[in-house]
Amino acid sequence: MTSTIVAPRSPYSRSPRKNGVNWEKWGWIYMRVSGVVLIVLIFGHLFVNLMVGEGVSALNFAFVAGKLSNPFWQWWDVAMLWLALIHGGNGMRTLVNDYATTRISRGILKSSILAAVVILIVLGTLVVFTFDACPAGQPADLLPTFCQAV
């Protein structure tokens, strides 16, 4: 049984450039490389969170706070965040290029994707690097129980 894939409906096409950077080629390469790196990062993340130590029963606020206090895990999570968001945004950009029918709709959709990716990267990075499970000067009844000794 054979199946056919319908051609994209977009009349959008680019004439090949003779000079300059081929961004489509580099986007394609990025998708392949980031996909492989993401597999390693995600399965490493899952293994440490679910298999090492007490397993899934140990996952709670204290576990996450302990991980986010370690610079290694901060950078691991930020790398996973950045690669996943840029990978997903680039995939969505490709879909918009293939299926958006007008130049204006392509511009609006790609600008929206870029804005969403940038905002999520900035907010996620801020959360990872500024997270403090035991902020100073807070009432004791609002802090987690493991902060009482501090």
Principal-axes geometry comes out as elongated
Annotation field: number of helices: 4
Mean pLDDT: 87
How many domains?
Answer: 1
Main beta sheet: none
CATH class: Mainly Alpha
- Can you write the helix and strand succession as a string? HHHH
CATH superfamily: Fumarate reductase/succinate dehydrogenase, transmembrane subunit
Q: In percent, how much strand structure appears in the residues? A: under 5%
Distance between the termini: 68 Å
Total DSSP E strands: 0
Low-confidence stretches: none
- Structural Rg: 22 Å
Helix content: 55-70%
What is the SS-derived class? mainly alpha
- The name of the CATH topology is 3 helical TM bundles of succinate and fumarate reductases
CATH architecture: Up-down Bundle
GO molecular function: metal ion binding
Keywords: Heme, Iron, Membrane, Metal-binding, Transmembrane, Transmembrane helix
GO cellular component, one term: membrane
Organism: Cryobacterium zongtaii
